[in-house]
Amino acid sequence: MLRRLPKVSTRGLLHAEQRLAERYADLVRLAYLVLPPALGRHRRVLLAHALVQRTLPAAASGVPAPRAARDDAPPMSRSLYVPVLREVLALSRRPPLWPGRVPPPGMLLPRLPVVWGLRLLPRAGGADELALGRALSELSATARAAFILLRVERLTEAETRGVLEAAGFGGVEAELRAALDLDAVLDSGAAGVLASEEFDPCTVRARPSDLLRRRRRVHLAGIAVLVALITVVTLVVSDGVPTVRAGAGAHRASRPAPAVDDVVRVAPGAWAATSRVDFTAWPARGRLVRDRALLRRALTAWAGDGHATRISRSAGTAAGPPLDAPHLLYAGPVGGGTVVLLHDGQRLARYREAAASGARSLVLARVDDADVTTAAAVALDTSGERVRYLLAPWVAASWTRDLMRPDTPARALAVDGDGLTAPVPLFGPGPRPGAGAGCGSRTVLQLRSSSRIAEHHAFLLAGLGELTAVHLTYTPLPGQGAPARQPREATGPAALLAWARTGCAVGLPHGPGVKAVNVWDFAEQDLPDGAGPGVWTCARADTWRGPGEVAVALRTAGAGTGEQARVVARARATGACGRFGQHVVVHANWRSPKGAWYVLAAGSRAVRGLIVTGDVTAGTDGATLAVRAGARARTAVRARLAGGLRPIDLSPGRSG
Asked: What separation in angstroms does the CA of 33 have from each of 103, 148, 166?
């Protein structure tokens, strides 16, 4: 049943147009951010503009709030939010042609409007925008709307509740709590990030769609129409309906393998002439890039038709054929076999044929937001505890170094003309991570980008046995009165020392699709009984799919560089110690060199006071605390932050 719009006078429409024009960019941004991220940026841009313009009659009529929400109703200057949110949230929850029911997960929203042959995309942002976009995508549409009204439009909690209820969505307490929880862990710069061009659907770039793919789709559409006509004629002539016996000739639904001629080959110098320095800028390298039979076998295996091919994928990586015509990155002999490396814009695919046995394997790995560091090395061949990497074309120099020996110089690594390295030890060998002293060696790659990318840009990568290597970074202690520091490359003396003391203790998770690990020294305190200064460190491992895990460790300055820090807490699936979890607090029992036991507590830069309660009670106005207690004392810690923010408690039994 169609909704009847209120009658609006011409004068009312003119007034509404003026109001919409004044707030148009803000309203379109609101609609764009609330729409489901799964739609993609192009469709969200078009839908955001269409939905805002469709609210013109409702804006002119001055839609009132429901009676239950009149006390919290927004002022007239904000009443434009109501019809916009009503349209956006209704579209997000219940697509057209699905009356009266909530669609199941994965239900596609309408593809209209369409701009034929063009893609309209907001300008790409940086790491801050990417992280905030991920955090918003984990909220529901109503919670996203509440967050934007609170953070960007600066509405109060009551006003936000009133707007959402006026838009016809009552019972939003859970969504409000989710929005407030996200708002609590963000710093004051989040509003500025939301105002950037990454989230501005009014500042867009027009780009053509994939012309070859579009042409192929037109041909396929023509063929499909022809087949449909033939089928209809056949049914009419035979006056019957064809049936298929269950189980007879069952066909596994899958996309056909891309043709060899469709494979994309990038020019060798393309990486130096683009702002997108990732796998899309890799050229095709290797002696067999023109071997059509080899490429056909690799493409067939990826499409799921290689029945004798063993397929595996890293955590969080989608299965299935390539999404688009893939880029060819490498094809040639490596070790005891032949390797083909492909990239479809979202995933890497490594196809390998063993020379001796003829066994075939395909490994898929998610790399959808790779950059100059995380797209710098790919493992082409792993044999035992050693691996050979293919380096990015922008890598100008390469070394290996032992992460456990920060004073030992890095050693030059041999690389052939195609960018293939000599065999390198995996991150190890040595005792199990977290085993304490006697960690053994931990070999990492130290690479330096070409000066055409950045001057003196060196970084560390650790191989954990997966297709991509893990980027290692470091965040130093906060400065006096300085703003929050950002992660930096772990190549300086302080970074190498911190990694040497914590790298083996915290361990690097093996196998869960780890993208990067950052070691953050978030607090320093003078330890009791003359133990000297102690540094609290939070090591965060981020995965390609988003969630991360952390380990908090305490290291003392008196011990040698070979002694590992003591891990006091771990947490999984948490935002702590990341871009949107900068406020943390932790406490633990600690034994001094004189044998006395204490409760130590520490908070990050913004902590203004600590209170320990339980078997002992103590407080301080600073960010660190030490109080004498028994060896098994049970305590809890509370932190006071500026602005009423709430830190994430990483203490044992409290993190998550």
From this structure: 21, 8, 19
The span from the CA of 421 to the CA of 401, in Å, is: 15
Segment 92-127, tens digit of pLDDT: 665 444 443 334 433 434 444 555 556 676 766 666
- DSSP assignment letter at 327: E
B/e letters for 309-330, b = 16+ CB within 10 Å, e = fewer, are bebebbebbeeebbeebbbbbb
The answer to whether residues 163 and 155 touch, using CB atoms and an 8 Å cutoff, is yes
38 contacts: CB under 8 Å, gap ≥ 6: none
**Nearest C-alpha neighbor of 456 from the set 539, 410, 397, 387:** 397
Q: Are 581 and 549 in contact (CB under 8 A)?
A: no
pLDDT tens, residue by residue, 312-324 = 988 888 888 887 7
Distance CA 255, CA 537 (A): 48
Give the strand pairing for 386-391 and 470-475: unpaired
State how far Cα 272 lies from the chain centre.
25
**pLDDT per residue as tens digits for the range 160-183:** 888 888 877 777 787 888 777 777
CB neighbourhood size of 130 (10 A):
15
Tokens standing for residue 645: 């923010």
Q: Please state the φ and ψ torsions of residue 349, each to the nearest 5 degrees.
A: -130, 120
Distances from the Cα of 278 to the Cα of 270, 343, 643, angstroms: 11, 11, 39
